[in-house]
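Model: You mentioned two targets. I'll fold them one after the other.
Researcher: Yes, keep them separate.
Model: Target one:
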Amino acid sequence: MTTRTDIEQVTAPVRRFAVGQMPGFVTITCAFFLFLYVPIVLLVIFSFNGSDSATIWSHFSLEWYRAVLANEDIQRAARNSLIVAVVASLAATVLATLAALAMGRGPSFRAEPLVLGTLLMPLIVPEIVIAIAMVIFFTAIGLNLGLGNVILAHTVFILPFAYLPIRARLDSLDQTYEEAAQDLYANQRQAFRRVTLPLLAPGILSGLMLAFITSIDDFIITLMVGGAGTTTLPVYIYSLVRVGVTPQVNAVSTLLLIITIIFVSLAWLISRRAERRQP
């Protein structure tokens, strides 16, 4: 016989496990974020330090930013970083777009999981392994293109960063728009150029920005693959740190941090805007 207590137990709402209510969870979380972001905040603050010390505050000054902007070595390293990042990100975005269209809109094939796994492998394999493999490969074939070697290595490494936003955007698009265009006597090329590509553009821009910022921030692959005259900004910062941390290092790092934040924020805003305008 069913009692009232049994009915109340059945109809009672199920209590879900709340991680935030675990003892010490809030404290550990706050300690984690403090440990992660306080050094970055201090780096930015001491980049405006007027003294020669990187850890002892004297007075507010823009002296080190003026020194950075007037330093020819830093300008050369920044120029190399921009060349590598722009070329590699554009190449990776084109390849990622083609790969996304082939696997997202093309006919399925048996090796598709293998191709996808190979494409996303740079996200899983340690970066040092990719760098060593690139050095061995370039040495074996005798390829020495200067910045060209770095660009090729970066293109392979940042390809999945460009692919994922593009594929996510493509999967969210309704194929009925392309079918409607073809019903209106548009061939496949016209339907792609006038319907698919404009709808896919936010994902392509997001992938391009993520690939660009991943390339411009890369250090390990650039250090291993690059040769004489291919010093990029992260490698130059590393060379400064080996001598000693100075406010000039803080200033260069802050500028690189600002560039990273700007591009990541733009990629996020484009992605959010595309979601809101999803047809």
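Model: Target two:
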Amino acid sequence: MAKKYVSIIIVPHNKAKSRNISLSEKMIKIVAGIGLFVFLALTVFLIDYFTMNVTRQKYKTLWDETAQQKTAIAQYQQTVDKLQTTIDNYENYAKKLNVMAGLKSEEVLEGEPGVGSGSGQEIGETGPSQTLDLGNLNDISQKANRVARNLDTLTTFFEDQVLQLASTPTVWPTKGYMSSPYGWRDDPFTGKRTFHHGIDIATSHGNSIYATADGTVIQARTDKIGGKTIKIKHMFGYVTIYCHLSKFLAKVGQKVKRGETIGLVGSTGKARGPHVHYEVQLNGKEKNPYYFLLEE
């Protein structure tokens, strides 16, 4: 049986002779097969290329989103840390208000002010920062709600007792740092273990000393231990005492307001350097002045 051929005639545009190419049926099938294979391979390659390109774009998008989420989480962590510090400050503030309001005694409050070692504790100094786990958010929320409820109770209490608040010693008597807290300590002169009935606030000579609440000056005298000493009587049983002044700026019988200057810092009496020895009494009983100091 004769083989079948397909002839392809190529006619050039110039005057050259035309060319005749003859292909057998078998050759045509081979060429067609090769062409189909190349087409399929190219199609698979293009599909794979575009698929990988889409995958790479998705991966890049996910990578960018992950980086943004990491940044957001870091910022969120910082916010949580600040929130924890704020809540702790409010809780400490609320504890002091509870003592002043008589809703809790200072003995039940957690934590006592640190005992100084001579260098003193800076006023307003905060403790070491704590790293929070995001899993503690529920605890923080519950703590915030508890503090908020307590502050609401205290707000209601004090709204009806503005006069009592004005008569309660709540501010620092001078600007400085607490060099010796209330309580037992080694006497700086004898070295013996003695009870310190107030707090010492170290500061510069000549700085102002302020009345810590509204009241009346009932004493302005000089003695061997306290030096120049002022005593102020406030309403609701409060009495405050200020020792080691260099100068009196208030006299007996004078009515003073909270924040009013009553004297200047000195080192008169039994004192190693300029400071204010400050005491708070309530109904004749000594109290730790630290728990009445709201301005940190």
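Researcher: Noted. Anything on target two?
Model: The radius of gyration is 43 Å.
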